[in-house]
Structures are given as structure tokens and as C-alpha cells.
Amino acid sequence: MGQHGVRTAASAKVTDHELTRFGAGHATLDGFLEGGLATGAVSEWGMPAGQGAREIALAIIARATADRNLVLWVNGQDGLDVYPPAWSARGVDLRFIRFVSDSKPLESLKPVFLEPLFRLIVLDSPRHLGSEEWAFIARQARTLDAHIMVLQDFFLSGRRGNIWARLRVNCKRRGNGLVASAGSCWRLETIRGAAHQPLEIGPLDM
User: Fold this and answer.
1) Which of 21, 46, 69, 201 would be a feasible disulfide site paired with 119, CB 3.0-4.6 Å?
2) Residue 16 is assigned to a structural domain of this protein
3) What confidence category does residue 4 fall into, taking pLDDT thresholds of 50, 70 and 90?
4) Integer Cα distance of 118 and 113 in angstroms
5) Domain containing 159: what range?
6) How far is CA 83 from CA 6, 56, 59, 133, 163, in A?
7) Residue 28 within a domain
8) How far apart are CA 71 and CA 146, in angstroms?
9) Percentage of the chain with pLDDT > 90?
């Protein structure tokens, strides 16, 4: 995945969409999300490296692409490449996803946020998002009727609230070892949003 480059397995035709929420196809997780991630909104997720919690985002993306929604994943982590076959093995339909490498997507990829092309946009570890950038993201999510997931490589703090994200969740791995395994699970704790008690969830089938 080259800098600012887009890589996909095949071109995808954008079709009309009827979905208003993006779920994972997992009853417990989707219940926690009240049916899924709503379009027209922004969510922020605390997912530090080593937690394995991006499996949760992958499950949501897999379901979105299965429903023929076009998804954009913007990778802001230095030195980390995306290997599309591995994503395909996790259930992601490569015809309906684009991968981009950019740590400052709102500077380099601003036209992407102005056109109604992607229904689900994932910003993985973006750098230097200030209040103006967050306001722009929230405004464009509403304008485009899309959902924008922002994955942070740190845990979110409830003391410094992000007023632009409708849902804010920390994902903490629970289990043995340094890497998520078959016996591990995650604890999801809501900082902002309609969810209730923390959720403990095991590996997701995709």
C-alpha cells in the first residue's frame, strides 16, 4: 500500500443503499451498539496496539461489504502495511473496500470527504485531529449519510470529552498472552453513547 495510494482487488460499482446502521452480524455486539453504527454520525474507539480489538472493526466492515457498501480504510500507522488476502480471510469482500495510507487524511484526502462515495469510512490512528477537524468530520458524516469510525491508538478519557463523536468506546483485551487468542475476549466500555453496562465479548465469527 503506497503513500496516498489506493489498492483494491477489483473495481466496485456504487449502488443505492438502504442500510441506516452498520452491525457486525453478532447479536451481542450489535445489541451493545443498539443495532449497529448509525449513518450520519461519528464514533471514536480507544484501541491501543496489542489489544487485538481491531477485530471488532473488521467484523463491522465484513458485514458492510457483504451488503455491498463501499468502505474506505485510512491507515495512519507508520510502517504498517495492509495485506488484503488476510482481510478476505476475515470475511471482507475486497471488491467493496479501498485501502489508503495517510496519517493526515483530512489534509491529503479532503475531496474524499466531499463526495457521496463511501458509506463507511475508518480512520485508523489519524494524527493531530483538532476541534475544527472533528467538526468537519461530523458535518460530512451527516452530509454524506455515512458513518465515520475513528480508531485511536490510545484509550479514550472521559475527562476530555470529544463533543463531535456520538459514540465513544474503549476496547480492552481480557485474557492471557500478548496477542488476542482463541480464549481471549474484549471488554467494551462506553464513555459516551446509549450503551449501558460494559460488555465482555469473545472472539467474533466472521
Assistant:
1) 69
2) no
3) very low
4) 9
5) 39-201
6) 13, 18, 16, 29, 34
7) no
8) 10
9) 59
